[in-house]
Design a protein that fits this description.
By secondary structure, the protein is of the alpha/beta class. Helices cover 60% and strands 13% of the residues. The chain is built from nine helices and five strands, in the order H-E-H-E-H-H-H-E-H-E-H-H-E-H. It has helices at residues 2-7, 22-33, 40-49, 53-63, 70-84, 100-109, 123-137, 144-167, 180-193; strands spanning 11-16, 36-39, 91-94, 115-120, 171-175. The chain has a five-stranded parallel β-sheet, sandwiched between helices. The longest helix is centred in the C-terminal third of the chain and has 24 residues, at 144-167. The chain is globular. The protein starts with a helix and ends with a helix. Bound molecules: BIS(adenosine)-5'-tetraphosphate (B4P).
């Protein structure tokens, strides 16, 4: 079954603060290594775009820079993973887990992660990148006030995720201050080192 396939699938969690370059590097990884890229943020924005009642609640939460409820994100991810289970060579789970509990529930319900890839960037750099993206993105959360809140949420809820996977010996950290091509050189070292 699809569920059994997922238990043995390669699953890589991709975490980092807002604007750390997660989405950007995932696109690079997909074109070189052929994983299935699932971005929790993109899945949530698609739910919003669908115009559902749930979508309206999600917009409010995202505008405040807060985390949407765990069950909402996990259900969206699970559905997409099941749909791709037969054909996928592995999954990049981008923007997830955002809190320790999300990782625990995912691993209980779907499968264990192979490792967690963490993009480390200073708050100043993340803010500058997001303000630059704000000029064209049209995203409700790309504005100065929301960016501050997203950074606070990251330090409070997501940093413990980094500590948690470090303790499990499953964290791979990339310094992502540099331009995206330089960062991808470091990412490739990790993926090639794992034999992907
Ligand atoms: P996300 O969609 O994950 O937003 P993000 O953190 O900004 O990441 P994104 O992938 O878009 O940006 P990236 O760093 O690649 O989350 C948005 C919101 O959704 C959250 O605040 C939360 O409310 C909700 N949410 C998402 N996942 C959730 C979960 N699991 N649980 C609960 N709630 C959840 O890139 C940013 C910019 O930097 C881009 O413009 C890019 O071009 C640029 N950039 C990237 N790398 C660069 C580099 N090396 N140099 C220069 N610029 C670079």
């Amino acid at each position: 079954s699809a569920e059994a396939k997922l238990k043995d699938a390669k699953i890589i969690f991709v975490v980092g603060g807002p604007g750390s370059g997660k989405g950007t590097q995932c696109a690079n990884i997909v074109s070189k290594y052929g994983f299935t890229h699932l971005s929790s943020g993109d899945l949530l924005r698609a739910e919003v775009a669908s115009g559902s009642d749930r979508g309206k609640e999600l917009t409010e939460i995202m505008e405040k820079g807060q985390l949407v409820p765990l069950d909402v994100v996990l259900a969206l991810l699970k559905e997409k993973m099941i749909a791709n289970a037969e054909t996928s060579t592995g999954f990049l789970i981008d923007g997830y887990p955002r809190e320790v509990e999300q990782g625990a529930e995912f691993e209980k319900q779907i499968g264990e992660c192979t490792f967690t890839l963490y993009f480390e960037v200073s708050d100043e750099t993340m803010t500058a990148r997001l303000l630059n993206r704000a000029k064209t993105s049209g995203r409700v959360d790309d504005n100065e006030e929301t960016i501050k809140k997203r950074l606070a949420t990251f330090h409070e809820s997501t940093k413990p995720v980094v500590d948690c996977y470090t303790e499990k010996g499953k964290l791979k950290m990339v310094s992502a201050e540099a331009g995206s091509e330089e960062v991808f050189v470091l990412v490739k070292e990790i993926f090639d080192g794992c034999g992907f």
